[in-house]
Amino acid sequence: MEVSRSKVPPRPQRPAAPLPLLAYLLALAAPGRGADEPVWRSEQAIGAIAASRADGVYVASGSCLDQLDYSLEHRLSRLYRDQAGNCTEPVSLAPPARPRPGSSFSKLLLPYREGADGLGGLLLTGWTFDRGACEVRPLGNLSLSSLRNGTEVVSCHPQGSTAGVVYRSLEKNRWYLAVAATYVLPEPETASRCNPAASDRDTAITIKNIEERSLATEELGRLNLRGGAGSLHFVDAFLWNGSVYFPYYRYNYTSGVATDLPSMARIAQSNEVQFQGQAALVCGHGRHLLLSSSLVEALDVWAGVFSAATEEGQEKRSPATTALCLFRMSEIQARAKRCNWDFEPTQANCVILGENLTSNCPEVIYEIKEETPVFHKLVPHPEKNIYIYLTAGKEVRRIRVANCSKHKSCLACLAAADPHCGWCHSLQRCTFKDDCVHSENSENWLDILSGAKECPQIHISQRSKDQTTVTLVGSVFPRQSECLVRNVDSGRELCKGKSPPNKTCTCSIPTRAPYKDVLVVNVTFSFGSWHLSKRFNFTNCSSLRGCPVCIGTGCAWCKSERKCIHPFTAACSSSDYNRNQEPCPVAFEKPASSKTAGEGGFKEEKSNRTNRGLQVFYIESIEPQKISTLGKRNVIVTGANFTQASNIVMILKGTSTCDKDVIQVSHVLNDTHMKFSLPSSRKEMKDVCIQFDGGSCTSVGPLSYIALPHCSLIYPATTWISGGQNITILGRNFDVIDNLIISHELKGNINVSEYCMATNCSFLAPSLKSSKVRTNVTVKLRVQETYLDCGILQYLEDPKFTGYRVDPEVDTELEVKILKENDNFNISQKDIEITLFHGENKQLNCNFENITRNQDLTTILCKIKGIRTANSIASSSQKVRVKLGNLELYVKQESVVSTLYYLIGLPILLVIVIFVAVGVTRHKSKELSRKQSQQLELLESELRKEIRDGFAELQMDKLDVVDSFGTVPFLDYKHFALRTFFPESGGFTHIFTEDMHNRDASDKNESLIALDALICNKSFLVTVIHTLEKQKNFSVKDRCLFASFLTIALQTKLVYLTSILEVLTRDLMEQSSNMQPKLMLRRTESVVEKLLTNWMSVCLSGFLRETVGEPFYLLVTTLNQKINKGPVDVITCKALYTLNEDWLLWQVPEFSTVALNVVFEKIPENDSADVCRNISVNVLDCDTIGQAKEKIFQAFLSKNGSPYGLQLNEICLELQVGTRQKELLDIDSSSVILEDGITKLNTIGHYEISNGSTIKVFKKIANFTSDVEYSDDHCHLILPDSEAFQDVQGKRHRGKHKFKVKEMYLTKLLSTKVAIHSVLEKLFRSIWSLPNSRAPFAIKYFFDFLDAQAENKKITDPDVVHIWKTNSLPLRFWVNILKNPQFVFDIKKTPHIDGCLSVIAQAFMDAFSLTEQQLGKEAPTNKLLYAKDIPTYKEEVKSYYKAIRDLPPLSSSEMEEFLTQESKKHENEFNEEVALTEIYKYIVKYFDEILNKLERDRGLEEAQKQLLHVKVLFDEKKKCKWM
Q1: DSSP assignment of 102-171, as one string?
Q2: Strand, helix or coil at 256?
Q3: In terms of Cα–Cα distance, which of 991, 993, 987, 990 is closest to 974?
Q4: Are the CB atoms for 1087 and 1025 separated by under 8 Å?
């Protein structure tokens, strides 16, 4: 809300009731101007917002805090306060009779210290977590750790209030937080949640020193509540004139009632609590709720929005319920000095009234479509004062404070009295001051203080008998100007002039008789780059009556003769040209409008008398009292004597504008009823009055314009085909609908009678008996001529009843159980009516009890009570009539056969059954033989076809491998290393990714420096590793983590790390030599084995990127391309084309390729002239719509070389057939629902899309959630077992079953292998080749090291060394890379790709194996697939190993130089301090064992002393650490 920038009038001498300022600047109605302004949407409701001067906007939603840029387009950083990666939302307590204030985890959000003493800005945040925690963080990045924190600072209840302000005390030059909070809520369910200690329960206001290391220190004084004061709800906190003010009101959180007048508490802006009193605030009678608070510093005025809660059960609110009142801060300060009643000690009561002001006309600057409450604070833009940040629900918008551009003239601009807008002369339009060129010159920009009289206007006046003068009046930017008067008809110049310096041009036209033919002239004033012109028409001068109208059109007015004349020809008497004569006021024509300007309200009367006798017009009511924003045609007003009036109008006056709607009566129905047609309007409440024959306006009461209805749930969503079931719709604003419609594809729209209240609608489902058994209909709501979709109602086959049983409970009560087949209907008591027939057509009503669903049948239980002969009724019962809506059925009783009948009939029945069984068995045997013969023939035919197709595909199929696939998306070294070091421990990754380039080496603390020096002691480090590995609880996971932490800690000391690796490898060989040397390095069971993997990753990262990376990425891309060429089941990810039998889609349907013409909608994100928007895309008719989207996106990328500007979940596909459009969705009302309730996803074939069809890609209107997670209730290509053998192939297979055998499709594995074979071989040979006859340094060095160790140990078996090399390089490094392309590239690995890469990795390792494979026909397919290729690969591998061995050995200096260069490359890549800290955790965990080992071993005495010193340093650091 906003107050016009006029001076506050002096306060009246005696108190008067304040006139509320009902200037609502924000209307929550239909979408309006400003729709192009940026919007930020959060996951949860927003609880706090603040804007800093330089670091952006901070938004707290749920348990998250986001840092946004000022345009709200980018998130700069995020803080998860509760659960990492999850924005949780507070769970509201059970709602009371009236709503509570909103719940929020965030309680304070205060930027401070921005620009003070050159220090960086800080952000103080308060949260309900940790018993009301408060934290101080750097403003620049929320991901940085907090600098200070404390508990029990703010309210720990989501519903509780907190208000605070940060200030600098001049006395001690320190920063303090003054905070007021509701620390205790009087509710049983919150009593034990987080309430403070008994000594702190009365605390209301405290001051804290926020420069201490912990905010949990003793408060600098506190202000306690008076006993019995109840709960105070604090709304705001602000500074003024050396004091801190806290507006608040008393609030009962249990009942939701504000119990007393709002007040303002005042304390000193000091370093301790000094209470300075309080003052009560009165803003009209009964307004006890304070909704919002704002200090208008320029006027030293405080503004508050007050509201009166409605009474219990009362729904109506009038516009006077909520008001804006102003209070002078000087008077609040004076009154508060001697007043106190809510805090200790108690003093006298004091009251202050709001200012008695009149508002200017309000203006709606932004409208919100959703019914969402607006946040109580509007945050101004810190740099551009033309913007504010508006928060509503889960959204923040940056909007302009005014809509200046809508005013098209200077008069309209200044008459609007908007303090932000003014007329810019140089631009000739209404603008903000900052938007006006040369706005520093005050005369170039006119604001509302100048007044409309200063607008430049062209005047023609006949000041003398001989000439007529053309002048420009009003305020004009002084500079050289020219003026010209031209006859429009002839084009002749009548006058031309030029102004002297710093004066405005004038032009004089002599009065001549020939000028009588000059009827239309055009006058132009030129000021350099801008012009002002006006056309004057003198055609009807003589017919004009009245001076204002005459002069306003440019004619001349003869005062003495009282007539209007042509200004250039006729002459008046000399008395009319007196120089001192004041010209008459000029009338300016305004365009006609259906709305009449008002004066802020109209007089309310209960009756309306006219001058025509004593006739009284009486108004009783208006129906309806709520209508939608679309308006309503039939609004009925009831009263008396309507037929006696000749002119009846209704006047509507809203709160969002001063204009009135004046509506003529549509039809006077009779003396007591008349009808009006009301126009559309924005969402607001309007006062209504009726005016009869121009008399006074009789009040009818308020009329509410509300938003269009919205449906949230239809229950039940399934009904039977005969109809008649009670259906309920839940939602909002149902009381404005005109009628409810059922839309059926065959029967069209069916009107149904409904009973609607505000939040629910009930209706009886209509019968669709003539339609198919299963059908879906759309429920629609009609409001005026608009139809709103409400949801889908599914019709199923009518329920089937199998029988009933009658059981007499006692002689006066009868129990009837009706048996029904199981179905999906939700039958309630009001849907069913049961009648029992007995005796001679006698009937009894049976009262419904319950429905029980069993595995086979459903039982409906009803009881007949108050009878005398239950047993006789039970024995004579004949049938039961069941009415389910429109369905009426008669159910027969289950037959009960006596024991005698069983004994007689059983032998006879048994003989009959035997004969029938023999006959049926013979017939079935013949039929089965015939069917088996047919099935074998069909199976043989299918096998022939599939084998022939597979053979043809192997010989003819070609995959268009993309040779140029753009830039390979390599990960940077940091992320590559972390993914290989911690493949399964993602939680460790983020702590090493801190930017270390700007790190100051001097900042490293002493304890970590000492530890760093200690682990550089080789003897100590080797001893520690061996000691750790001997501990039973030092698991394999701990060994891998320790090795990775050690690699990061020694990342810049690779020479030292390599020496450690050598020592540990020799020690491992000593262990392995006693058992089986061939098993060494085979598994990751020791620190050295993981250390070797990490060392290879570090040293081979360059070789991987330069040599292997491109063929590896081409393999992954080609494999993806081949998989997507055939059908892929979107639920299971199985595909027809694969390398892994486990991922083979053998239940494949017949499919064909469909060529689509795709048209991409133009979007700002991809607004490039050379982008091709019409693309031909090939899809399969069995592709889902989601799969089609992916292929369309890939085609766009391939065609244009850049991706489309939207994400997959942000677009929709639309099929265009002629002028009709059909939106394509994976699931819609046309989706096939199988018999067991499983929904089949829609495909291209489902929509019958043919070759050449046009598909449009466009942006979704609504912001839907991302990717859909399909459950077991959906299927795509793999049908459920119950449907697997059904006919799903169309007419040409009707009557046949499609036989599927998995082995028929194993040729697809071979087809996939052939497609990628060349790419795969290129990859393998890039790994085991020697570019430029040189091996990578790491490989050559380590292989020579293994050869040397074998010689030292006198190992003569060459197989042992071969296995060592294979276990150290291919097994430990290459296989890990081949199976995980996401370690190297920025791509997503699907489960299917993972399965295929496992087959490739197996073939790769088989190439290095020394054992010959003995494969038979029963061998697994992943072994058979590359069986013929493995011998060739093995020869190449042996040559590779031999070539490396034959290379000249590396000198120690060459290897050291290589390792030194690698170390320099990775400086400042990781935070080594974190790695050292993690290493110390392991050392301190096994400290005693390590220390004992150091004591036992000789030569480690110095290391023992250093270790003890390191522990002392860490212990001291732990003691001093600020938590």
Answers
A1: PP-SEEEEEEE-SSGGGPPPEEEEEESHHHH-EEEEESS-TTSPPSEEESSSS--STTS-EEEEEEEETT
A2: coil
A3: 993
A4: yes
Tens of pLDDT, residue by residue over 1100-1155, are 999 999 999 999 999 999 999 899 889 999 888 899 999 998 888 877 778 899 99
Helix or strand run (H / E) with residue 1517: helix 1501-1520
- Please report how the helices 1501-1520 and 1018-1029 are oriented relative to each other, as an axis angle in degrees rounded to 10: 80
Question: pLDDT digit string (tens) for 29-65?
Answer: 333 444 467 888 888 888 899 999 888 999 999 889 9
Q: Whose CA is closest to 257, among 249, 265, 248? A: 249
Cis? peptide before 583, omega within 30° of 0? no
How far apart CA 674 and CA 690 sit, in angstroms, is: 11
Per DSSP, the three-state class of 997 is coil
HSE value, Cβ hemisphere, 13 Å, CA-based, for 917: 6
Q: CA-to-CA distance for 622 and 645, rounded, in angstroms?
A: 18
The rounded distance, in Å, linking the Cα atoms of 816 and 861 is: 6
Which of 1146, 1151, 1145, 1117 minimizes the C-alpha distance to 1129?
Answer: 1145
Strands 786-796 and 801-810: unpaired
Q: What is the dihedral of CA 1493, 1496, 1497, 1502, to 10 degrees?
A: 80
Best CA proximity match to 368, nearest among 184, 629, 667: 629
Burial (CB count within 10 angstroms: exposed 0-12, middle 13-18, buried 19+), residue 800: exposed
Residue 810, pLDDT above cutoff 80:
no
Q: How far apart are the first and last CA of the chain?
A: 43
Do 656 and 366 form a contact (C-beta atoms < 8 A)? no
Q: What is the mean pLDDT of the chain?
A: 81
| The one-letter amino acid at 1430 | I
Does the pLDDT of residue 946 top 70, yes or no? no
Cα separation, 157 vs 1173, in Å, equals 54
Please name the residue that has the structure tokens 């033989």.
929
CA distance 258 to 1448: 91
Residue range 909-928, pLDDT digits in tens = 888 999 899 988 988 888 88
Concatenating the DSSP letter of every residue in 1232-1270 gives EE-TTSPEEPPBTTTTT--TT-EEEEEE-SS---SS---
One-letter amino acid for residue 610 of the chain:
T
449 burial via Cβ count (<10 Å: 0-12, 13-18, 19+): exposed
Residue 1499 CA, distance from chain mean position: 64
Residue 1048, classed as helix, strand or coil, is helix
> pTM of the full predicted structure?
0.52
Question: Residues 780, 741: contact at Cβ < 8 Å?
Answer: yes
Cβ(235)–Cβ(226) under 8 Å?
Answer: no
Whether 96 has a pLDDT exceeding 60, the answer reads no
Task: List the one residue out of 806, 796, 793 whose CA is nearest residue 764.
Answer: 793
Cα R_g (the chain), whole angstroms: 44
Q: How confident is the model at residue 1187 (pLDDT cuts 50, 70, 90)?
A: very high
Q: What is the pLDDT of residues 300-329, one digit of tens each?
A: 899 999 888 655 444 445 556 788 888 999
Interatomic CA distance for residues 1467 and 1051, integer angstroms = 8
- How many Å apart are CA 1477 and CA 595, to the nearest integer? 75
CA distances from 103 to 48, 107, 208, 1418 (A): 11, 10, 25, 66
Distance CA 648, CA 667 (A): 10
Complete DSSP assignment for 1057-1107: HHHHHHHHHHHHHHHHHTS-GGGTTSS--SHHHHHHHHHHHHHHHHHIIII
Query: Residue 609 has what pLDDT?
Result: 42
Q: Which residues pair with 1256 in a beta bridge?
A: 1159, 1214
